[in-house]
Amino acid sequence: MFLPISRDAEFVESNLMHVINGYGYGNLTGLDLKLGKRVRWYVIGMGTEVDLHTPHWHGNTLLWNHMRTDMVDLLPMTMKVLDMAPDSPGTWLFHCHVNDHLDAGMIAPFTVLP
Ligand SMILES: [Cu+2]
């Protein structure tokens, strides 16, 4: 059986999902951090030339390349390593700042436990 391949760009885009560690729409669990305990985040971009990601953390900041930030840009097939010393307890959002990706599920919670 052959299924037709759609060349309708809008239809194709509507069927693309954007995820974090394979999970979308806030369903990724296990990102539990401890207040004051340093953690290292490895972020890796996958996809093609249209998949520029901008991972963004709410509530806490990170160090990348000697700079304090809460967001980095991530080209396809590249990675960045960031260090966080969580100083703000609670459950926070971690998501891509590209609106298409956010709308397509690229959002996850992370929790800083007291
Ligand atoms: Cu993205």
According to CATH, the fold-level topology of the domain at 41-106 is Immunoglobulin-like
CATH class division of the domain at 41-106: Mainly Beta
Outline type:
elongated
Strand order of the largest sheet: 1-8-7-3
Query: Level of helix content?
Result: under 10%
Task: Give me the secondary-structure category.
Answer: mainly beta
Strand count: 8
Could you give the distance between the termini? 56 Å
Number of helices: 2
* Largest pleated sheet: 4 strands, mixed
Strand content: 25-35%
Name the CATH homologous superfamily of the domain at 41-106. Cupredoxins -  blue copper proteins
Distinct ligands? copper (II) ion
Tell me the CATH architecture of the domain at 41-106. Answer: Sandwich
Helix and strand element order: HEEEEEEEHE
Instruction: Please state the average pLDDT score.
Output: 93
Gyration radius over CA = 16 Å
Write a compact overview of the structure shown.
The chain has 114 residues and is mainly β. The protein is built from 2 helices and 8 strands.
Task: Describe what you observe in this structure.
The protein has 114 residues and is mainly beta. The protein is 10% helix and 33% strand. It has a 4-stranded mixed β-sheet with strand order 1-8-7-3. Strands 2-6-4-5 form a 4-stranded antiparallel β-sheet, with no helix packed on it. The chain is elongated and about 55 Å long. The mean pLDDT is 93. The chain binds copper (II) ion (CU). Copper (II) ion (CU) binds at residues 18, 53, 96, 98, 101, 106.
